[in-house]
Design a protein that fits this description.
Elements (H helix, E strand, L loop, with lengths): L1 H10 L7 E3 L8 E3 L6 E3 L1 H6 L2 E2 L4 E2 L3 E3 L2 H18 L2 H4 L9 H10 L1 H9 L25
Antiparallel strand pairs: 1-2, 3-6, 4-5
Helix pairs in contact: 1-3
Amino acid sequence: MNELGALLFVLKLPVGCAHKIGMGKPLGLGTVVIEPTLYITDRKMRYSTLFDISKSEWVIAENKNNDENVEKYKTAFEEHILRNMNSKERGTATSLWDTYRLRQLKTMLDVKKGIKLEEEGTKIEYMALKDFKDRNVLPIPEKV
């Protein structure tokens, strides 16, 4: 159950966030919103019956789950991680997205913040190799 929750946690981001794809994240292939749909297969039913004569169709034994079930799996994963993580790192977080590191990630994945930075004329460009020697440390995302 935790593994399924982990997969759903990374696919179904908080509202307003989107995945970045491509190697050079700011100049990569773009931003995408992934909307996962969860199907649970009953393996015993699937392989015990091949065809449903009454409906004249193949027995697939798949059940489409609603968002409530998706959230149940995600919550179980979050609770597992929070319960097993260092208490100093966890702090007072009740959700993984409330922890320091994931708050920073959420800031970087925020679509509106990205659009705002582009409108302000923030120029994103690749650095020349010689510039890497004296580069500054990047600021914390929440402070940009």
